[in-house]
Amino acid sequence: MHGEGEEKDGEVVALRIDIGGRTLGHVRRRLRVVAHDLDAVLAGAPAAMPPAGHDGWLLRSLPAARLPEVAAELDGWLVAVRQHYPRHYIAMDGRSFDDWWQGFSSKTRSTLSRKGRKLAAQIEGGFTVRGYRSPAEIRTFMALAAPLSERTYQARRMQAGLPNGEADIAAAAAAADAGDVRAFLLFVGDRAIAYLYLPVARDILVYAHLGYDPDFAELSPGTVLHVEAMRALFAEGRFRAFDFTEGDGAHKAQAGRESIACADVLVLRRTLRNRAALAVMRGVDAAAAQGKAWLDQLGLRARVKALLRR
After folding, report:
1. Which member of 39, 61, 76, 217 has the lowest number of beta carbons within 10 Å of its beta carbon?
2. What's the burial of 309, exposed, middle or buried (CB within 10 Å: 0-12/13-18/19+)?
3. Would you list the domain boundaries of the chain?
4. Burial class (CB in 10 A: 0-12, 13-18, 19+), 130
């Protein structure tokens, strides 16, 4: 699974230590990151392993069914599962928006429709959704979405806003020139209040960045935008799937139609420094799990989570 002559390099990866989505700190290690795309996950095959980084590997979205095999092959390394999650996706090939829409329960369809009507009714003039795909359009999208992204929860609390440096914009424009980007903005008047950015890889849409203005959070603009974007994307008739990528979440579970069990796996060299780092991360994870269980017993988990996001 891994090659000979391991090189002591790789990229510096900041392994986040957090509780309830609030970052407490980072452990930085030089790792080779091995990402599994949706095709690899559906095939159930671990990706080929490049030479290890200075500290090891980070295996992203490894099919969970292959964990025992991978752990056995990496005997002699420190192997730690950072998180288990279902990788949600929407199969789109040969299917329509209505097929996807009817996959929701009647109650959920009613709720989603009501959110759209509520947003339109609360805003004078309603809302509009615009799509962006050409290089010039993507540059316009970036200019409009960047200041909005800076105000989102993802950017403020998780440093995971829309990348908008000059190199990022140039790369996005180049991808657009190849037809490999779709982006959407939801406007009220001339104000953008939600964005969705989707790279395209081998005709699979990748759920990369979704954000919305916190001033409009109660009106669910991100959800409304996603529904309208799916309408446009299905109409193209090009895409094989919509990949929600790594990690779980209520929106992914609701909008996705199928899922594969996956895991993010940290593989480190057996050094005292790495043993200590793993001990810290495992300790925080255990404390967080215990805290969640305690809050669930008291029925306070959702309320505390909302407070942490402020």
Report:
1. 76
2. middle
3. 11-86+260-308, 93-239
4. middle
What pLDDT, in 10s, does the model give residues 128-159?
Answer: 999 999 999 999 999 999 999 988 766 565 55
Is residue 90 scored above 70 in pLDDT?
Answer: yes
Prediction pTM value = 0.86
CATH number at 93-239:
3.40.630.30
For the chain, the distance separating the N- and C-terminal CA atoms, rounded to the nearest angstrom, is: 44
The DSSP call for residue 20 is T
Letter for the amino acid at 87? R
* 3-state secondary structure (DSSP) of residue 107: helix
Q: What residues have CB less than 8 Å from 63, skipping those under 6 apart?
A: 36, 40, 41, 44, 45, 46, 260, 261, 262
CB atoms within 10 A of CB 142: 22
Using CA atoms, how far residue 130 sits from 104, 138, 146, in Å, is 25, 11, 16
Q: What is the DSSP string of 290-310?
A: HHHHHHHHHT-HHHHHHHHT-
